[in-house]
Amino acid sequence: MELGYGLEASGRPFIWVVKEVEERRVLGVEEWMKKFETRVEGRGMVIRGWVPQTLMLGHVAVGGFVTHCGWNSTLEAIAAGVVMATWPHLYDQFFNEQLVVDVLKIGVAVDIEEPKLHDIWNDNEMAVKVKREEVEKVLERLMGGGEEGDERRERAKELKEKARMAMEEGGSSWKGLQDAINYALESRKKMQ
């Protein structure tokens, strides 16, 4: 709900993909979602369920991506040249956030506290606690951001081009896949 309030307060157009809304975890959340959708109608869209994320990230109208920093989502955003608001939840996602924000410099951290390992079985303790004001602030930095934001978007475009070149015939990713295929074929021949 705090993410929704932050998206609403940002004043920016958005698509929010919600995989599930669990009434049993937060009483009244279903009713809140209905009211939220009414309040942001015409500026924001809520999609319940699955979406083709790669296709969406590649759309020219997408200016930024709020991500949990899973490796697939991170790579998809990099390959699409999209800047990211990073909101990791568990494990390696915090390392991926460091890569996006500190190394590649194409993201803005939501600045959440990494959950403690001993709290892993307590859902209430594992909940990532971020206030709407923080979401609004991060979205403004990500989507506006002045000179810093312009530099972030330019780096994202450069990485998109590098990713495209790596996947073309003769590129490093293409060669790596070709090597894996050749290895599998050679191994199969040896077994016959």
From TrEMBL:
Domain of life assignment: Eukaryota
Keywords, sorted A to Z: Transferase
Transmembrane regions: none
InterPro entries from the UniProt entry: UDP_glucos_trans
GO molecular function: transferase activity
Pfam entry (one): UDPGT
Protein name: Uncharacterized protein
